[in-house]
Amino acid sequence: MVISDETRSKIDEAISKYPVKRGALLPAVHLVQADHGHVSKECAVELAEIFEILPIQVMEVVTFYNMFFDSPQAKHHVYVCTNLPCSLRGSRSLLSQLESHLGVTAPGETADGRIFLGHEECLGACGYAPMMRVDDEYHEDLDVEKAKRILDSLGK
Amino acid sequence: MPKITIDGNELEVAEGRTILQALDDAGLLMNGIDIPHYCWHPKLPVDGSCRLCQVEVEGIPKLQIACDTPVRDGMVVHTQNERVKQAREGVMELLLVNHPLDCPICDQAGECKLQDYTYDYGVQASRSKEPRRALKKNVDLGPTIVFDQERCILCRRCVRFCREIPKTGELAIFNRGDHSVIETFPGTPLDNPYSMNVADICPVGALTTKDFRFKIRVWFLEDVPGICTGCSNGCNIHLGVANNKVYRYVPRRNDAVNDTWICDAGRMSYRRIGAPDRLRECAVRDESGRLEPVGLDRAIEVAASRLRRLVDSKGPGVIAGLASAHATNEDLFTFRRFLAALGSETHGVAVVRGEADDLLIKEEKAPNAVGARELGFGDARTVVDRIGSGGVDAVIALGNDALQEGLLGSEEPLANLDTVIVLDTHASELQRVAHVIVPVRHAAEKLGTFVNAARRVQRVVPAVESVWETYSDGEVIAKLGAALGLEGFDGSYDARQVARDLAAANPAFAGIDLDSVGDAGRPLADSAASKAER
Predict the structure, then answer these.
(1) Rounded to a whole number, what is the distance in Å from the CA of B160 to chain A's nearest CA?
(2) I want to staple A118 with a disulfide (CB 3.0 to 4.6 A). Which of A96, A107, A127, B47 is the partner?
(3) CATH for A5-64, among 1.10.510.10, 1.25.40.390, 1.10.10.1590, 3.40.50.620?
(4) Distance, CA of A20 to CA of A18 (rounded, Å)
(5) To the nearest whole angstrom, how far is the Cα of B16 from the nearest Cα of chain A?
(6) Complex ipTM over 0.90
């Protein structure tokens, strides 16, 4: 079993909140990804058993949403917003300088697997442009030095 | 029942049907009233994703998709006006934006809905200059199917098919929007007994069968209506024929038999027609025990003299007939008449049995087991038992199904008989013990009828002609009857006339002849034999 008993009981609790079992699939995928960093084929098979669906139906959901991953990921996910307001405030140049700082081409991952750098369309923080998302946190009113410091502070 | 008006034609339709379903029910869809469609399929759940079937419904401001708009009384629908035409052009342009347009090397060309609808409803030139999506080519989806992701228009027919018909669900759409692609779950290939149907329902060249791809351009093929002989379901098929060769079977829609499907085993059974082990010449066993090739007349002469000698010395009771469930009703009726005229009462039909499912695949692996029983052939076990007890000196065998375990088991029980006459399509161990061998026609090479497991009489017509001399079983039996001087046999065999004689002699077949049975078949009337069987 790749999904832990603890996560399984959390999934059961989520299922109890929905009129149809399958309604809890999204929260369950979130829980599994929080444990493993991605939803592996093995996890999909076990989730399919729990939800009484086909493993491929779990993968449909996993691949549909950008925030779910079906393969091992970098330790940290960094997305620089490049939509219009952020672009007007210099986010494209910010992104390219972060690319050379990390030595990657976005979307891409550093050689040591520490950081994945990508761009994102509008994260709804236009008032604080330019901004980026680091894992689940927003960093706003950025300049290049501030952004580099944030990236350098990220652990392995 | 609601009345609707489509392009000025009033139509009475069943409650709760969608516009496309109603037209399909009435046989009008793409046959009088043209509403192009990709994702909708008459035998699959509605998807509504391709947007090509948009029509104008009076009273509704926006165009509606005909596949998912239920009919209601008084509805007025326009399928051909300027607004609809423009919407179709728009959809076609979007579908073609990323299509590789590799028709010259695509197997679907000639039977491709994207090609057809582009000619009929699309614009003639592309406005897009951007590079097209580069995706996976030549993806091995499983043992039977190859997938080209670039050609796929994401209609989801294959996904729905796998979930709804074989219920194996191997395929799904991964990712979303313009990243969407069809995929299998890692390590779970597309592998089910009906997998090759996805190539038929794929409207473009994305899914093709490994068996047929690159064999021949489809416009060289003539579609001859026929019946699959793989089991007693009698699925309706088209035989794709060119150069006097059958290149493929594809399902032919018959809602009373197989909807629009066929199993993979049945589809691949076309290979039996031109198989290297087909029997190609008549042969008789000479005094040294060797089989010697002869003409049909000589084979009949030898068979007749052997049988005559036995009848004269021991009476007709020592002659047994083994019928084949691969033979047509006309063949079997002639054989039955022959045995009766000869005075032989030992006969039966051997049918190979195998796996069955609750979709199409039936237990009896021959097309005409029901017909054979209807014509009075009982269980072949009685013949085999009689051979075992020494009461039989001669066997006339149509086909080799009796070799199966549980009946003869092998050719051995026939080895010491005085006379074994074999009429068969393919080589088998029976040749080892046969004294007379006559090659006969495969169902794809002759005219006649079969009765399927649901008691439906269905017709086969000659799709190809074997390049060597072959004969219908009935034709050989008729000649043998004449050579023996039996009453009612003048040596001629005409399947049409035999079918009429059969209908006159057997009330269950009343009114059915080779013309009236049509391409779709007709149900057999209930008879004493069928009632006893139930």
Answers:
(1) 12
(2) A107
(3) 1.10.10.1590
(4) 5
(5) 27
(6) no
